[in-house]
Structures are given as structure tokens and as C-alpha cells.
Write a structure and sequence with these properties.
The protein has 127 residues and is an alpha/beta fold. Helix content is 50%, strand content 14%. It has six helices and five strands; from the N terminus they run E-H-H-E-H-H-E-H-H-E-E. The strands form two sheets. A three-stranded parallel β-sheet has the order 1-2-3. The chain has a two-stranded antiparallel ribbon with strand order 4-5. A hairpin with a 2-residue loop joins strand 4 and strand 5. The protein is globular, with a radius of gyration of 15 Å. The two termini are 20 Å apart. 22% of the residues are buried.
Length: 127
């Protein structure tokens, strides 16, 4: 099984009708067309981030309630694994030497724990 770390900012682009992001589209295509061989790993807080963004988008009338339900169903159909360890270790195992924010540290931690190699570029740091 091939894995990669998926951030909320990428996944939410799939849901918002007024967003257009080539990288996000390619990521979605990768997950949809390789459902048995590719899975995304997300931090424990990811579902809350997605839910909050969808709720905010509905309140701001960027999405209808029906569009929100369709987005939730679409996300639930994908091979996404929640990494629970990120929440448990968020205060203790950061990579302070690179001055990463907490979101970037989550991606860094998951990538390292899953031994995913250099998959993500954060600023000038390839992780």
C-alpha cells in the first residue's frame, strides 16, 4: 500500500465548488483511481478541520446543505486513515530546529513515522 500525508487545505479544495486547485485535483484522482493501492494518512484533528470548514462554507453560502452532504459522502468513500498519534504527541515531539508551525509539524511527524520519505515541501524543507 502506498501512502501519503493529506492536509485539510488540500482535501477541502475537493469540496468547495468555487475552488480550483490542480494539485488538489490530482491528489483526488490518485485516491479515486487507486483505491486498493493508495491511502492518505491524516492527523487526528483532520475530521474536525474538514467539518469546521464545511460548516463555515455553508454559513457563508459558499455551499448548500446538499453540497455539504455530497462532500462528506465523497470524502468517506476514499481510503483515508486517521493517525491518532499526532494528537497524543503534539506537545512533545516537534521539530523546533526548523521553526515549523503546529500544522507543518503534524505533517512532518506523520511522514517520518510512516517512513514516507521526502514527499512534502514545507517552505524550503523537503520532508
Amino acid at each position: 500500500m502506498k501512502q501519503f500525508v493529506l492536509d485539510c487545505s488540500v482535501a477541502i479544495n475537493w469540496c468547495l465548488p468555487d475552488e480550483n486547485n490542480g494539485y488538489a485535483d490530482k491528489t483526488l484522482t490518485l485516491l479515486q483511481s487507486n483505491i486498493s493501492t493508495v491511502e492518505a494518512i491524516v492527523p487526528g484533528i483532520w475530521s474536525l478541520e474538514i467539518a469546521n470548514t464545511l460548516l463555515t462554507s455553508e454559513r457563508r453560502q459558499r455551499m448548500t446543505p446538499t453540497q455539504v452532504q455530497i462532500a462528506v459522502s465523497a470524502i468517506e468513500s476514499l481510503s483515508i486513515v486517521v493517525d491518532q498519534v499526532t494528537a497524543e504527541t503534539a506537545l512533545h515531539d516537534g521539530n523546533e530546529r526548523y521553526s515549523l508551525g503546529s500544522g507543518s509539524r503534524r505533517v512532518w511527524r506523520i511522514s517520518r513515522r510512516a517512513n514516507l520519505g521526502k514527499l512534502v515541501l514545507i517552505g524550503s524543507i523537503a520532508i
